[in-house]
Task: structure prediction
Amino acid sequence: MNRPFRKAIIFDMDNTLLQSKIDFLAMKRAIFQLWVENGICDPALSWENHTASQLIEIGRRSEKMTAELEAHMWEAVTAIEKAGMHQAVLEANAAEILEQLHQNYYLFILTNNAYAAAQEALKETEIIHYFDEVVAREQMTTLKPSPAGITYILGRYPDLPASAWTMIGDSWIDGKAAQDGRVRFIAYNGNPLDMERQGVAPQAFISDLRELLTLDLGE
Result:
């Protein structure tokens, strides 16, 4: 926090900076099955059409949720995350771009993954030193697409206006979090149809991280 910059960038991690192999379908299935077994959701729920974070929030809002059940859910989720993050590799040009951006911006990671898993993956890929802070699900009251993580990060830098911040991510849930957190959003290899269906309007779509150097990333 001692670096005196006036702009900041928040990066999603999976499939934005790192090519992980997290089996999100298996994760969603595991959460759904656990909820059904414990009477938290209807077996007819179209779980495939929900994100993992949305399924998690269904459980967390349920009156039938217990601390033991939530711990069981996180244990299953974390196991799938760790398996998928093992030997993750960097997205093309990620290290090169972070090296340049690090000289002029505060840089953050905002991930729905566990903090320990995120730290391990960023250390293994040797990019963790570029970031001022890694914010994972433990620091959020609600997972993306909620803006809770954005709000947490912006609260750490009260002197920077919302206009100084940019979120970079591959998914509509990143864009939704950014929009509701009132910061600009740039979609990296994002699906335009998914974005449109979810009411997300990125400032730009990019397919190469090097394009960040040509864009307006804050006032």
In short: The two ends are 19 Å apart (CA to CA). The beta strands are 8-11, 18-19, 89-90, 106-110, 133-135, 165-169, 184-188, 204-206.
